[in-house]
Structures are given as C-alpha cells and as structure tokens.
Specification:
The complex is a heterodimer of chains A (283) and B (277). Chain A is mainly α and 283 residues long. Chain A starts with a helix and ends with a helix. A two-stranded antiparallel sheet of chain A has the order 1-2. By secondary structure, chain B is mainly α. Chain B has a domain of 178 residues: MetI-like (MetI-like fold). Chain B is built from 13 helices and no strands. Chain B is globular, with a radius of gyration of 23 Å. Classes of the chains: A mainly alpha (283), B mainly alpha (277). Chains A and B meet through helix 1, helix 2, helix 3, helix 6 and helix 7 of A and helix 1, helix 2, helix 4, helix 5 and helix 6 of B.
Chain lengths: 283, 277
C-alpha cells in the first residue's frame, strides 16, 4: 500500500503543500531575511546585518514599553481568568439546577470576534460608566485602558477555560473524593490534596492557552483602546503594526520586532511542551 | 438537592445575568435614537427615543452590510471546505506513507502552529498580492496555507488511531487510494472533520488582520470585522452610534444562531482542539 500510495502524491499532498509554501513557508523566510535588511519594498532590500535588532533593543523604547505592558496584562489576566474559570467549573460540576444553561451562557462570548467584542464593551464602559461617573472616557488614562482590556478578555475567555476545567473535573473518580471525605478531610483539604493534583493537566493547558492568547492579543486592543492615550495601552502585536511605516527605516525595525515576538511566543510554547512531557512521564 | 445547591443556583443566575447584560444593553440601544445612546446608555427606550428599525436601515446602507456578510460567508465557507478536504488527505498521506520526507513536512506543519501572524504580516500580503490571491474567492488558498498546521496536526492524530487492516482490506478488494480515502477513511474521521470545521470557522469568520492586509479593499472587499472597524474609524469623531449599535447586533446575530444550532459540537470541538493544540 505504501508504494502505491506514494504515486498519488500530487493529489493527496501537493495542494496543501503548495498552499503551505505560499501562506506560510515563503512569507516566513522572506520575513526572517528582511529583518536583517533596510527596505522600502521587498525588491530593493539591502542587507544591514543586525542593525534592525540593535534598534529594537536600544533605540526603540516603545517596544520595551509595550513588552512590559503586555507582560503585566498577561500576568493579571492569566491569574484572573484561571481562578474564576476554575471556581465556576467547580460550581457547575455539582449537579445543580440549570447547569447546562449556565454553561451555554458562559461559553457564548468566545464565539464573538475580538473587534465586535471590543466595540460592544467600549460603548458600555465609556457611555455607561466612565463618562457619566467621571466625565472621562477610556482614552483618558492608561489604567482605564488596562483594566478595560482585562475585563473584556476575562469576559471572553472565562467560559472557554471553564469548559476545559469541567471536562478535567469530570474525570476525577468519585471514589477518591468519597475516600478523602471518609478519612475526615474537609472541603478545602479535599480540593487541595485530591482534586487539584488530578486536574493538573487541565490547569497546564488553560494556563498556556490564556498565556499565549493574552500575549498575542490584537483585535480587542485595537477596538477598545487603539493604544490611547499616546501609545501607552499599546500591546506588542499592535506596537509591531504601528511601527511599520513610521520612518524610512521602520520596515526593517518592525520586521525585527516580529521576529523577537515570534521567539518569545515560541519559548512559551516550548515550555508548555516540556511541562506536558514531564507529566506524561510521571503518570 | 440540599439547601446549599439552591444557593449556588441563585448565585449563578445572578452571574449569568451580568454575563448577558452587555448583549442586552447592545440590543436595547440599537432601537434608540442616536442622541439617547451616548447620554443614557443604560436607559430603556421611551416613546421619544424609540426609533424602531431606523438605526438598522441607516447601518445597513452606510457600509453595504449585506455585501460584507456575503463576503464573510464566501471566505469562511470556501476556506473551511478547502481546509477540510486538503488537510485531511494530506494528513492521511503523511501518516500512511511515512519516511523521512513526510516526517519533515509534518514537523514543519507543527512548527507553523507556534508562529504568530505578526511574523508574516508584512510578507504574506506581498506574496498573496504577487499571486493575485486578493479576492474573497481566492483568499481561501491563503487560509489553507496559514491554517494548515493545526488541521494537519489534528487529522494525523486521528489517523494514527484507525486500524490499518480496514484500509488494506479495501485496497485488496480493488479500491484505488482515492476511493479508499473517500469511502473508508473519510466516514471514520467524521468527528474530527466537525471539530476542525468549527475551530477554523470560528477563527476565519472573526479574523480581522489577515483579510484587512490581503483583500483588495479598492474593489470593496470588506468582511464583517473589517466593515465594523471601518464604520468606526472612517467617520472621524462623528460616529452615528445608533447605526453602529445596529451593526454590532447584526454582526453578533449569525454567530449566536450558529452557536444555538451546533452547541454540542462546538463545545466538543473546542475541547479536542484545546487538548491537542
């Protein structure tokens, strides 16, 4: 079968491979090359070595500012989303009335796209809360924008993580919880010593999902704050886009930023891979 | 059911109400006069501020809404169909043929899952433009390329669990690889097809940056997220909030309908995508 199938390569493999070259491989390598170039268009690029990277790390303070802002935002949102999602999942695995309905509602915001979601919340935060109470809108201060973004992302992602936690919690054997109770463990002790270790895989998945989602956030950022005031709520993905085209040298700088951004995301993914591998060994 | 559980139901009902509140506010305001929105966003419409469907009419005509929803629909449906067909065939081939070449391609696909769009956001539009892939009916090729990683990964994972003997029996009975795939492998993989379709549809329907950079806007190719964004930014401060609210409602509506119809599959698809991705 192996040999017969091999001859069918043009039908089975070629379409995806060709599209993959166009949509990923070629742009990826041109991008990598251009990060070492000064260029206006792709055709007239001149090789300048590490000059773009030097600029990213030294001259461009916006990149580091955005990095710090993104890191802080990621930290806050990862903790908030996971704690709330886990608590909700605990409540929804006790067989209470209306469980299915609650689950459906909590998951729903996930399906709404970041742009639409961002504008819905912008209207509510601005005209429902900030302007009537303080006479200012989201673009007035960095703190408003920061917490606005946290709120939007939490509203969107709690349901998703809740679903994963629920499926994790449902796989904890009933007998183990019963055994712990018979041995005299209280609610908190059972949770900490029996349930939590058993749902560790779900916790790892959710932590990394929220981590990469927050780190790569763009649409919500664009709709809700658009970096205002004065690029102080600009996260990394938006910083890369806004850098491109500002000065003659900015094309290369933005591409170099993108490479650094990619490396950071890749490191997060590698850490995830390692931690899942370790867990598999233990089991 | 004990007392404590009733208390929990009550608590969740309140949280649920808070969760639905933004959407309720949105719908209510879409029927209010535009001056009444910015002033009192939480107020119900009164006799003076209720405008019926006027906001909807203004919204739809101002950005050519039906055209945008059509483009969004074409892009999403074509892309998802293309991705399902091509990547499942590709995954089966990679897994069954094996060898060094296939393994390398597989690793390249897995690698692409890690790469954020920003890495190719300046070069992908260039490549797509050179190849003329800037229309709603040709952009699916770009989506197939950039989205292949996750799909191939999910399909290969499933192919591994299909016993080889079934396919071999079909081959001995005289099936070509093509008919073996369509008659034997494809029906077995149905659950994975649904999961992949849902994950990709959610991504492509809501995607903003890729179509903005790739589609030829001079020809009026705006998807829904692009149209919403331009309705907000192209009006420089004098946004018609009534029409804008109506547009947001119309943008959310298809997604909610989709969710209500396929809720069970959607949640299952998300779980399998999350666990593997």
């Amino acid at each position: 079968m192996n040999k017969t199938l091999k001859r069918w390569f043009p039908i089975f493999l070629l379409p995806t491979l060709a599209a993959f070259l166009i949509g990923f491989v070629v742009p990826f390598f041109i991008g990598l090359y251009l990060s070492f170039c000064e260029y206006g268009t792709v055709e007239n690029a001149t090789f300048v070595g590490f000059a773009n990277y030097v600029r990213v790390f030294t001259a461009d303070s916006q990149f580091w500012y955005s990095f710090g802002f993104t890191a802080l935002f990621t930290l806050v949102s990862v903790v908030l989303i996971n704690v709330i999602a886990f608590a909700v999942a605990l409540g929804l695995t006790r067989g209470i009335r209306g469980t299915n309905f609650f689950r459906t509602v909590f998951f729903m915001p996930n399906l709404i796209g970041g742009i639409v979601l961002g504008y819905i919340w912008k209207m509510i935060i601005n005209y429902g809360v900030l302007i009537p109470l303080f006479g200012k809108d989201l673009s007035y201060s960095t703190a408003y924008g920061f917490w606005g973004l946290v709120l939007v992302v939490a509203w969107q992602q709690i349901g998703y993580m809740m679903i994963i936690y629920i499926s994790g919690l449902q796989s904890v054997p009933e007998e183990q919880i019963e055994a712990a109770k018979i041995d005299g463990a209280g609610w908190w002790q059972t949770l900490r010593s029996v349930t939590l270790p058993m749902v560790m895989p779900s916790i790892t998945i959710c932590t990394f999902l929220t981590l990469t989602n927050s780190f790569k956030l763009f649409d919500q950022n664009l709709a809700l704050t658009d970096g205002k005031p004065f690029r102080t709520t600009e996260m990394l993905a938006m910083c890369i886009r806004n850098t491109y085209g500002t000065t003659p040298k900015s094309h290369g700088t933005a591409q170099a930023m993108a490479v650094v951004f990619f490396l950071i995301v890749a490191i997060i993914a590698l850490l995830q891979l390692r931690s899942t591998k370790e867990k598999e060994v233990q089991q | 059911m004990n007392k404590k559980n009733y208390w929990l139901t009550g608590l969740f009902s309140i949280v649920c109400a808070i969760y639905l509140f933004p959407l309720a506010v949105l719908v209510i305001n879409s029927f209010k006069d535009k001056q009444a929105i910015t002033g009192r966003v939480f107020h119900l419409p009164t006799k003076e501020t209720f405008v019926g469907l006027q906001n909807y009419l203004r919204g739809i005509t101002s950005i050519n809404f039906f055209q945008s929803i059509g483009y969004s629909f074409i892009v999403t449906v074509l892309s998802v169909l293309l991705i399902l067909l091509c990547t499942s065939m590709c995954a089966w081939f990679i897994e069954r043929v094996g060898g060094r070449f296939c393994r390398w391609i597989y690793y390249l696909f897995v690698f692409s899952m890690v790469v954020p769009f920003q890495m190719v956001m300046f070069t992908l539009p260039y490549v797509a433009d050179r190849l003329g892939l800037t229309a709603p009916w040709s952009i699916p090729l770009v989506y197939l390329g950039f989205g292949a990683g996750l799909s191939v990964f999910m399909f290969t994972g499933f192919v591994k669990s299909i016993p080889l003997s079934i396919e071999e029996a079909a081959m001995i009975d005289g099936c070509t690889p093509l008919s073996t795939f369509f008659r034997v492998v494809l029906p077995i993989m149905k659950p994975t097809y649904i999961s992949v379709a849902i994950l990709q549809a959610m991504w492509i329907w809501n995607d903003y940056l890729l179509p903005t950079l790739v589609l030829d806007k001079t020809k009026g190719y705006y998807t829904i997220p692009m149209a919403i964004q331009s309705a907000m930014t192209d009006s420089y401060g004098s946004v018609d909030y009534g029409a804008f609210m109506a547009l947001l409602v119309l943008a959310v509506l298809p997604v909610i309908l989709f969710y209500i119809l396929g809720q069970k599959h959607i949640i299952k698809g998300v779980i399998s995508g999350a666990v593997k991705g």
